[in-house]
Design goal:
Radius of gyration of chain A: 17 Å
Order of helices and strands of chain A: EHEHEEEHEHEHEEH
Order of helices and strands of chain B: HHHEHEEHEHEHHEEEE
CATH topology of chain A: fumarase
Number of helices of chain A: 6
Bound molecules: iron/sulfur cluster
CATH architecture of chain A: Alpha-Beta Barrel
Oligomer: heterodimer
Number of domains of chain B: 2
Distance between the termini of chain A: 39 Å
Number of strands of chain B: 9
Strand order of the largest sheet of chain A: 2-3-6-7-9
């Protein structure tokens, strides 16, 4: 369990050094993207349109923030992670095309994404689900917002962050997956649990 | 007293309290879990949760960005004045709280997915009414996030499957949910009734504080048994492994048909937000779940 402080843009080499149970803090730029933004981004590739912002070397954050606007200035009030599995069918292509280095979310992701992370050199940083205020505190400024027509939670929020974390490396670029390990252990214990309950 | 105004202001307050500050019993349970948890990763998750809770309370901002779909439980004294005005007042309060707290606008039309922008819509906020004796009105604000609500399950078992089937159903539900409902969770288990009643009482079971024992000895025993069994899974805080997959299991029962055994499991995430107050006929207010200094 080592602690790393990473600055964006993050290189593949830096990511390959990380293993599950490591803790990372990110400084630089992260961009929120949920289901709708993933869908639109992949549609853009099909149409050959460029994205309004580059993800290269950055972190994608599965998050729909609570924001407030005073004048033209946006402030993030609360911004914990959302359930990552909702993006499962879209993430492989997203990683392949947009070259993000870190995925931040909660609950982990499926086989296909884990495969993409291994292949392209990406880690999954689990942020504590629900810790919206803690996340907001590390967000220093809203650099911009794109695709606001998708609604506040689904838009791309481009955020300036300082020591954003703690993020546990829950899936690394070597195929290790803490969520899967926990469920596997639980499955193994199931007969014992049934026995204790007398069922 | 202008009942509509008083109830509206009170409900805005309750929504704010609910989303920025956890009830005493939940905070206590999280602290205990932090102390008793052994794995480093699990301890860290709980530490971040506790830091977040403290920070939200201090800065009066939402604990979690998913401020939920709004529901109210109202226990209305039959002799209280202005009961006919309360539904409107609770809708207005929801709209105001969305702007003032702020809450995230979450309510959408289920067919078109168009967001109303103010957390109201058909049957939203949903109001659970109960008529009681006397003239006091007790209101609970209960915003519920989707991450944990999406894991709720209901099954109508056969009487032959009985208690064994029921226990298995609870364990399987937790295993299937895994990391998704932001564990450590509180489980509400509703047993009996028809299927609609089973889910209704499973949710109601979540309103009972964690430090309040089930008054029925048999059910208290079942709760303890399920609590220990679920925590044996080791899914742990945020599904990263650990001792605390749940902070508590609350069971509520209703009689059921002789040919039926409905069972419902309602998941509550660690951000177990609820705020309750009593409104007296003279307009005075007593907060039950939170300490409020005016
Ligand atoms: S499950 Fe609860 S704590 Fe987790 S993101 Fe949803 S509302 Fe927040």
């Amino acid at each position: 369990m080592a602690i790393y402080k990473l600055n964006t843009p993050i290189s593949e080499e830096e990511v390959r050094k990380l293993y599950v149970n490591d803790i990372i803090y990110i400084t630089g730029t992260i961009i929120t993207a949920r289901d709708q933004a993933h869908k639109r981004a992949l549609d853009y590739i099909k149409q050959g349109k460029p994205l309004p912002v580059s993800f290269e070397g950055l972190a994608i954050y599965h998050c729909g923030p609570v924001v407030s606007k005073v004048g033209d200035k946006w402030t993030v009030v609360a911004a914990g992670p959302t359930t990552s599995t909702r993006m499962e069918t879209l993430e492989y292509e997203f990683i392949e095309n947009f070259k993000a280095r870190v995925i931040i979310g909660k609950g982990g992701m499926g086989r296909r994404t884990v495969e993409a992370m291994k292949r392209f050199g990406v880690v999954y940083g689990a942020f504590v689900g629900g810790a919206g205020t803690l996340a907001a505190k590390a967000i220093k400024a809203v650099k911009g917002v794109e695709w606001l027509d998708l609604g506040v939670p689904e838009a791309l929020w481009i955020l300036n962050v300082e020591d954003f974390g703690p993020l546990i490396v829950a899936i690394d670029s070597h195929g290790n997956n803490l969520f899967e390990e926990a469920i596997k252990r639980a499955e193994e214990r199931k007969p014992l649990i049934y026995e204790k309950l007398g069922v | 007293m202008n009942v509509a105004k008083v109830v509206e202001d009170l409900a805005v307050d309750l929504l704010r309290l609910a989303v920025v500050e956890l009830p005493f019993d939940v905070k206590e349970a999280l602290q205990r879990a932090f102390q008793e948890e052994e794995s480093e990763v699990a301890k860290m998750q709980l530490k971040a949760i506790l830091d977040n809770v403290e920070l939200a309370e201090k800065e009066r901002t939402p604990i979690c960005q998913d401020t939920g779909l709004i529901a109210f439980y109202v226990r209305a004294g039959a002799c209280a004045k202005g009961l006919d005005l309360m539904e409107g007042a609770l809708y207005n309060a929801t709209r105001r709280a969305t702007k003032e707290v702020p809450l995230r606008p979450n309510a959408v039309n289920p067919l078109t997915r168009v967001n109303s922008g103010d957390n109201t819509g058909w049957l939203t906020p949903y109001i659970h009414w109960e008529i009681a004796l006397g003239d006091v009105v007790e209101i609970t604000a209960f915003p519920k996030g989707a991450g944990s609500d999406n894991m709720c399950v209901l099954s109508v078992l056969t009487p032959a499957e009985g208690m064994k089937g029921l226990k298995r159903f609870v364990i399987d539900a937790v295993m299937r949910a895994g990391a998704q409902p932001c564990p450590p969770n509180i489980l509400g288990v509703g047993i009996g009734g028809g299927p609609d009643v089973a889910m209704k009482i499973a949710k109601e079971a979540l309103l009972r504080p964690l430090n309040q024992a089930n008054p029925d000895a048999e059910l208290a025993k079942l709760e303890k048994e399920l609590y220990e069994a679920v925590n044996m899974t080791g899914i742990g805080p945020m599904g990263l492994g650990g001792k605390f997959t749940v902070l508590g299991v609350n069971v509520k029962c209703a009689f059921t048909h002789t040919g039926s055994l409905p069972v419902a499991v309602a998941f509550q995430c660690w951000a177990a937000r609820r705020a309750t107050a009593k409104l007296y006929p003279d307009g005075s207010i007593e907060y039950i779940t939170h300490k409020v200094v005016r």
